[in-house]
């Protein structure tokens, strides 16, 4: 992906703006100190002193240091991956750390007593090591690194959610951690992050020259005598180390690493040195100001929303506001598919795929377990159990098909292999709608939840389309816009989790992706929606072949560029939104479907989308059946199983270097 | 009551034995009941009714602990994702559900008539609703006397504990969960524990500011506002929280911690029914009466 080069608005004076922000932060913090409630009792004065020194001051220090570390980490990652939307979470650090914590809680609580921080750190590092191992063969090509990171994040996230659901103990602590609460009761986190930040900044200083060379392409950098791979590895390791230290101390604070470098560039920082200096400062102020606002809005009953979630809430709109200021760049042309073969008779291959999916559906209908063991269900028992099995089968097939197709459309449209359907922010919107209904209604019915989820998805969709239309459908802007929206949405969700209560378990079930609540009505509605949404692909398929060639070529070939992009985005977003309610936000299916379809050789736009849909349906059908069978009578989340069925295969493809993406 | 117009006569009639003429009251053993809700499960067990199937028993035995679940009860999986096929194979005549599971009610109705009894609704005191749920279960299963006995037993026990705690009357108590070494969650006036506190003659130090289900995690420093309160910490305490807090300057300087005015109680289901209320009252009363002993133990969180 191209580097975002930001034009510098003449009226913005970075230094003054920075000082103004710092002053604002100081005023807010003074307000926080002034508004501390007076304590009662004989120990009041001593306690107030203690609170100041052991709670308020370390909290501010932690916010500043964590923000700076994340800003530096994001700046390093964006530079080295040449990807403006790279940040610690794109690499799977947060998800890896969360999985490690969850695993430790479930299976080795003693490990946590030994070192909670160390456990999270190990998970983050392991995730990144896996991501790098996967992309080794492709020379850490930035795009591959990000795809691998995404894949790993999704798998780790689904596994964490499933574990939390299956084990009630200590979930409260995980929710807090997931929302990034900054309360402190000693200086230890601040000191830990501070020392790592100091070491990291020193190392970054030493790496400054290699970082500047990285602006050149690999060949040019190599000709200047740089060991490109080794240097890239070192810089990534440094960035990960910084991010993992923050994640392990205070939890998930996703947005700062993404936003701080972007703001730095917006403020006019061009050279790596300037960005590396500005991004940590901006990150520190961002998190500090947010945390002060969180404290000022807190009631006696605690913060309204944890800081990590709040910064996501504030950060999303900021990024949206930034969008129109980014210069447009043409969509990346599709990479040549190299040795990949082209199917001579895609129609026949499609029929084969359809037959395969049908076979899996039949297996799912007939084979199962009862209270005694495995059994092939037939006769009157089948008639009895079919009312439970058929809706799930229909829902899994339809949702898998929709996600596969949406992923295929998005990847063709944006030319970015990272563009799984959730990049549109629509799934997160559906989740927010769901969360609202769960919070506000004492006894939410299936119909209410469905309506709320659809409302949330449509709201997010309207926002994305509005922003996309405003910015002229540049692929990068669409992605950034969707990510900003998704970021905000998931931040809200993590705040709901942190509040706890039974609603959060329902949300968690949604996050982990389960089809088990689907009744007959919903299943047939979903199937009808799938048909309605998939049929237009037959007509619009041509656009998918022409649009990736660029706006100029497309217009010359008579394709209405803006309108066709709008139509395709709308279609993909609707597909995602509909599927999201039933199988959660997990879109590994939306990544796997298109990758496998491309590998099989479906090249034309139309057959590519349909093949992705069929593969997606097959994967989700298989996953859903396994989810019902493996731990009977306990049901595993379908989303998790989809990740476990398809994920390793995707990883294998990537590692083999055979998976070309476009 | 909570079922509103919902429990339809139809459902009652469909549960074949439930409403026979008073003289010909059915044997409760003949009515096969199942439940997806934990509060209703413990209420059933507390009334001596063994359901044929219930949800998430592995965790129930750890979190709710009492009453013990007989091995004959079929585990139908997670409460959030019960296995409908397994529930179908258990062949219940009547399924008890609550507002948390409203979404899956249409599917449950494919298996057997469903009775929805909701104990926890925002702003409604749960204790009375827990009693009403027991009474309703009694009416539907023909075990009114068992329901009456459970209600009487729990109330009598709480009254007796109240007598034992006479010298603590009006004492402020803060019931909380530790999330990690920096956060806790508190049980407000409209939680079951909040209500039991009042029934025990104690005072909820938190006041009526917030309900359990709606409160975000609270920073540990907020405890400094309640120097007078007796702290009741519900297990599980995360291992690292116990470790870090024992060395924390702030924690150890809190007047309640310094003076050992705290107790760690065994796990109690925060969304339980009458048996949970009795369990909480018993554990809390024992902890308060043993306050001196706790001081000798040094208020360990382990």
TrEMBL record, chain A:
Location(s) in or outside the cell: Cell membrane
InterPro entries per UniProt: ABC_BtuC-like, ABC_transptr_permease_BtuC
Membrane topology: Multi-pass membrane protein
Domain of life from the UniProt record: Bacteria
Keyword Transmembrane belongs to the record: yes
PANTHER family the UniProt entry points to: FE(3+) DICITRATE TRANSPORT SYSTEM PERMEASE PROTEIN FECD-RELATED, FERRIC ENTEROBACTIN TRANSPORT SYSTEM PERMEASE PROTEIN
Similarity comment: Belongs to the binding-protein-dependent transport system permease family. FecCD subfamily.
Protein name, entry field: Iron complex transport system permease protein
Organism this protein belongs to: Ancylobacter vacuolatus
Lineage of the organism: Bacteria, Pseudomonadati, Pseudomonadota, Alphaproteobacteria, Hyphomicrobiales
UniProtKB/TrEMBL annotation, chain B:
Residue span(s) of domain Fe/B12 periplasmic-binding: 32-292
Protein's UniProt keywords contain Glycoprotein: no
Signal peptide from the UniProt entry: 1-26
Keyword Iron attributed: yes
Pfam family, one: Peripla_BP_2
Keywords: Ion transport, Iron, Iron transport, Signal, Transport
Primary localisation category: other
Subcellular location: Cell envelope
Superkingdom per UniProt: Bacteria
Sequence similarity: Belongs to the bacterial solute-binding protein 8 family.
Protein name: Iron complex transport system substrate-binding protein
Organism listed in the record: Ancylobacter vacuolatus
Highest classification ranks of the organism: Bacteria, Pseudomonadati, Pseudomonadota, Alphaproteobacteria, Hyphomicrobiales
């Amino acid at each position: 992906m191209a580097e975002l080069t930001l034009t510098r608005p003449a009226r913005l004076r970075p230094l003054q703006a920075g000082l103004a922000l710092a002053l604002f932060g100081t005023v807010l913090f003074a307000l926080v100190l002034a508004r501390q409630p007076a304590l009662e009792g004989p120990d009041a004065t001593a306690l107030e002193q203690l609170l100041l020194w052991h709670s308020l001051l370390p909290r501010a220090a932690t916010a500043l240091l964590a923000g700076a570390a994340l800003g530096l980490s994001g700046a390093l990652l964006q530079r080295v991956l040449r990807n403006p939307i790279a940040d610690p979470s794109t690499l799977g650090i947060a998800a890896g750390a969360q999985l490690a914590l969850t695993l430790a809680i479930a299976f080795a609580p003693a490990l946590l007593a030994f070192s909670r921080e160390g456990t999270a750190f190990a998970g983050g590092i392991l995730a990144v090591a896996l991501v790098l191992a996967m992309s080794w063969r492709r020379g850490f090509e930035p795009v591959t690194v990000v795809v691998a990171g995404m894949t790993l994040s999704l798998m780790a996230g689904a596994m964490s959610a499933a574990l939390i659901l299956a084990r009630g103990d200590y979930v409260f602590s995980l929710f807090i951690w997931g929302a990034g609460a900054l309360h402190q009761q000693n200086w230890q986190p601040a000191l830990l992050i501070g020392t790592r930040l100091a070491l990291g900044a020193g190392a970054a200083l030493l790496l400054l020259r290699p970082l500047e060379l990285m602006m050149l392409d690999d060949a040019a950098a190599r000709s200047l005598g740089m060991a490109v791979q080794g240097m890239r590895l070192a810089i990534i390791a440094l960035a990960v180390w910084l991010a993992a230290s923050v994640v392990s101390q205070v939890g998930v604070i996703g947005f700062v690493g993404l936003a701080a470098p972007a703001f730095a560039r917006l403020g006019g920082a061009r050279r790596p040195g300037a960005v590396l200096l500005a991004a940590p400062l901006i990150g520190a102020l961002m998190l500090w100001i947010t945390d002060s606002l969180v404290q000022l809005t807190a009631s006696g009953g605690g913060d309204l929303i944890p800081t990590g979630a709040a910064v996501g809430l504030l950060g999303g709109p900021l990024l949206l506001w930034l969008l129109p200021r980014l210069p447009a760049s043409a969509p990346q042309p599709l990479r040549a598919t190299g040795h990949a073969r082209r199917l001579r008779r895609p129609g026949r291959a499609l029929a084969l795929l359809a037959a395969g999916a049908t076979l899996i559906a039949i297996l799912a209908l007939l084979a199962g377990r009862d209270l005694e063991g495995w059994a092939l269900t037939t006769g009157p028992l089948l008639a009895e159990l079919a009312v439970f099995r058929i809706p799930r089968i229909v829902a899994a097939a339809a949702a898998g098909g929709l996600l596969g197709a949406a992923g295929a459309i998005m990847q063709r449209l944006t030319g970015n292999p990272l563009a799984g359907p959730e990049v549109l922010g629509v799934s997160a919107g559906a989740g927010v709608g769901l969360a609202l209904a769960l919070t506000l209604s004492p006894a939410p019915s299936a119909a209410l939840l469905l309506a709320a989820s659809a409302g949330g998805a449509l709201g997010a969709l309207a926002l994305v389309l509005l922003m996309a239309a405003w910015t002229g459908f540049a692929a990068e802007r669409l992605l950034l816009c969707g990510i900003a929206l998704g970021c905000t949405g998931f931040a809200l969700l993590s705040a709901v989790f942190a509040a706890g209560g039974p609603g959060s378990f329902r949300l968690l079930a949604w996050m982990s992706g389960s089809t088990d609540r689907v009744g007959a009505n919903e299943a047939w509605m979903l199937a009808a929606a799938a048909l309605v949404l998939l049929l237009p692909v037959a007509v619009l398929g041509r656009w998918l072949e022409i649009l990736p060639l660029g706006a100029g070529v497309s217009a010359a070939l008579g394709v209405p560029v803006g309108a066709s992009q709008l139509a395709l985005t709308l279609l993909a977003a609707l597909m995602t939104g509909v599927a999201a309610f039933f199988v959660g936000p997990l879109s590994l299916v939306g990544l796997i479907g298109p990758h496998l379809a491309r590998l099989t050789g479906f090249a034309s736009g139309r057959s590519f989308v349909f093949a992705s849909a069929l593969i997606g349906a097959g994967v989700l059908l298989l996953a859903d059946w396994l989810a019902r069978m493996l731990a009977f009578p306990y049901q595993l989340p379908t989303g998790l199983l989809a990740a476990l069925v398809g994920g390793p295969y995707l990883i294998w493809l990537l590692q083999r270097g055979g998976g070309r993406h476009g | 009551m909570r079922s509103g117009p919902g429990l339809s006569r139809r459902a009652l009639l469909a549960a074949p034995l439930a409403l026979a003429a008073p003289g010909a009251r059915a044997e409760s053993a003949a009515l096969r009941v199942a439940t997806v809700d934990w509060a209703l499960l413990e209420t059933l067990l507390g009334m001596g009714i063994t359901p044929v199937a219930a949800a998430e028993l592995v965790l129930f035995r750890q979190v709710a602990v009492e009453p013990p679940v007989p091995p004959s009860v079929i585990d139908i999986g997670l409460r959030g994702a019960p296995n409908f096929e397994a529930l179908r194979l258990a062949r219940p005549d009547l399924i008890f559900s609550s507002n948390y599971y409203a979404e899956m009610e249409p599917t449950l109705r494919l298996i057997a008539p469903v009775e929805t009894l909701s104990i926890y609704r925002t702003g409604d005191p749960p204790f009375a609703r827990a009693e009403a749920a027991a009474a309703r279960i009694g009416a539907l299963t023909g075990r009114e006397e068992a329901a009456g006995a459970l209600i009487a037993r729990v109330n009598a026990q709480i009254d007796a504990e109240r007598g034992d705690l006479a010298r603590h009357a009006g004492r402020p108590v803060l019931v909380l969960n530790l999330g990690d070494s920096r956060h806790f969650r508190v049980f407000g006036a409209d939680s079951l524990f909040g209500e039991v506190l009042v029934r025990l003659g104690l005072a909820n130090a938190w006041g009526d500011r917030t309900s359990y289900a709606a409160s975000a995690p609270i920073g540990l420093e907020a405890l400094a506002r309640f120097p007078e309160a007796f702290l009741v910490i519900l297990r599980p305490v995360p291992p690292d929280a116990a470790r870090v807090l024992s060395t924390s300057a702030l924690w150890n300087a809190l007047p309640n911690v310094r003076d050992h005015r705290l107790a760690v109680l065994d796990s109690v289901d925060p969304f339980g029914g009458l048996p949970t209320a009795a369990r909480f009252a018993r554990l809390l009363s024992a902890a308060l009466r043993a306050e001196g002993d706790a001081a000798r133990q040094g208020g360990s969180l382990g």
